[in-house]
Amino acid sequence: MASEGGEKTEKPTERKRKESRKEGQVPRTQELGGWGSLMLVVLLLPMLLERESEALIDLFTQSTRAIAEPSVATALQLLGDGLMHVLIVLLVLGSGVLVVGVASALAQGGFYWATKAVKPTFSKLNPITGAKRVFGPQALWEGVKMLIKSTVVGVLVWVAIKALMPLIGGLVPISAMLHIVGDNAFSLIRNVAIAGLVMAGADYLMARRRIGKQTRMSKEEVKQEHKQTEGDPLLKGAIRSRQIAASRNRMLADVTNADVVMVNPTHVAVALRYDSERGAPKVVARGAGAIAARIREEADKARVPIVRDIPLARALHRSTQVGQEIPAELFAAVAQVLAFVINRRTHGQFGGEHRSPRKESELPAVPIAGRRRKPSTTPSAGR
């Protein structure tokens, strides 16, 4: 019992996940957006520099020419051109970083409002809880992560410097040396960004694992939440019983409006009402056993004729539901019974229990209730 009630072994429910998001318990790493932005800058910056280098050379040429005939208008024009090129570079890089930041947030569960996380609580001031955060598994993982990042960055920097060592003191032209140093610098930053993205992925997996453990639920918690959301099974059963009883009482009350009750003679009972303006006869009540006995009692009280017809009563009970029209295959048989009942009513004879006026013992096969389609046009039963 203790293991079932206390040990958290079950996955969190959807309601628990929503509450955890409000408390800020969402698997997320801030490093994914940072390293992704750095990777984007490394990819875009060389192309931007190559594009803007030609404009920069042209700007320097125009500046040299302007020295011969200096003027305020020329100086302002050159300054505006230079600022425009800088603005283009910053705008492209800033937009790219913004897109990467938003995409990384969406990839980790989207944006959310941790409303409960900003509320002051005593647990945040608890020194024991604070000590667990400082010396717990999360702090250990942060230390290991920092050590791995420092080691990887140090190794990559050492490899880049070692590749440049043969150029120092050599006879390599300064332009070629600057080109090689620039390529190595960009390669170094790109490799560092790739390593950072790998570490960010590992950090996200660890955060997902940690949040998964924190949000686990015990079997007793799952049961209690199920009761709160779905309702107590005993209460739902009682409500369902009351609904069935109310529906049954309404059905029995409708027996007083029936034209005839077909019986078998004690097992089943089906009450029919016929309205020539609405088409085929409709079932207003049906039942077997005790319900059939109640239908016969209500029919006796309301002086509704009861007709004993074993095959027809069984066929109607098997092929209809309350509120449903009778199947087309039984129109002819029911029409004979209704003609008999209506004839007695015209002579002032009501109620009573009678034998069926039908002579035929066999009926056409009819589908079970719920498996037949309602006919698009239902001929009158009196035809």
TrEMBL record:
Keyword Transmembrane helix in annotation: yes
Biased composition (Basic and acidic residues): 1-25, 352-362
Top-rank lineage group of the source organism: Bacteria
Region annotated Disordered, chain positions: 1-28, 349-383
KW Membrane (keyword) present: yes
Segments passing through the bilayer: 32-49, 86-114, 155-182, 188-207
InterPro entries in the record: T3SS_substrate_exporter, T3SS_substrate_exporter_C
Keywords attached to this entry: Cell projection, Cilium, Flagellum, Membrane, Transmembrane, Transmembrane helix
Protein's recorded name: Flagellar biosynthesis protein FlhB
Species in which this protein is naturally found: Nocardioides dubius
Source lineage: Bacteria, Bacillati, Actinomycetota, Actinomycetes, Propionibacteriales
